[in-house]
Amino acid sequence: MDRFSVEYATTSAAGDHGLQLSLVICTPKAIVRPALNILFVHATGYHKEMWFPIIGRLANENVRCIAYDIRYHGDSASLNAGKPVKDDADWMHHAFDILKLAGELEPPMPILAVGHSLGGTALLLAEHARPNTFARIITLDSVCGPLDPTVLPFNADILITAKGARRRRSRWPSRHEAKRSLLKNPIFCAWDEEVLNTYIQYGFADDLATNEVVLNLPGTAQENAERCLRGEYIVLEGTGHNIPMERPGEIAASIRHYIAAIANTRARL
Fold first, then answer.
1. pLDDT band at residue 73, thresholds of 50, 70 and 90?
2. For the chain, which terminal residue's Cβ has fewer other Cβ atoms within 10 angstroms, N or C?
3. What is the DSSP string of 129-174?
4. Which domains are assigned to the chain?
């Protein structure tokens, strides 16, 4: 990230619960006046710095990149330590956080949004709640389905996936042991090494009481494209759910494609 000016900041989450969100703003040093914001939203169990290997590949683009830690993840977990985790938290809370953050970006510019898994779902919900918030949305293997709230939370397949996520181990004796343990899992073995190292570096906090490292996350805590106007469905062969971790170079290339598409659209206006 040495080709970027990197600024860390905090902002308040949507609602009146007093929650804070940690964000990082990355602007290519070679760019004097960016013409596009790119907003990155991570998945459950990860953190904003997971996007660095992808952002780092956009140093020649006329953009400003913003990534943030969703509620109770990464540095947002530290900011909200001691504040109760609401059991009734739902995906719309993340969507409202996104809308608030998008509305606060200064100076205002078109926004290309990129989200992985839950992050992509929250972006779609945000756009549905406030159409035309984003110039383009790239969702990476995100959960999409009917908006009926009586259907989505109780879908058996979704509940099975959620229970699996909640069983993830969150504590290790050291970062070295955490990495060694994670590499026993085929999911993490498929990750690009730079991404895995970024995850290990930024995604854990030191527990001074136990001398352990803890994941910054509370333990409790083609048809779709056809339904989207001008939507595209793209498959990266040989990947799993964690696409941005496995293929950061290809994701960055896709982002560059849509940066050019947005620029071409604006040039015709």
1. very high
2. C
3. HSTTS-SEEEEES-------TTTGGG-HHHHHHHHHHHT---EES-
4. 4-168+219-268 (3.40.50.1820)
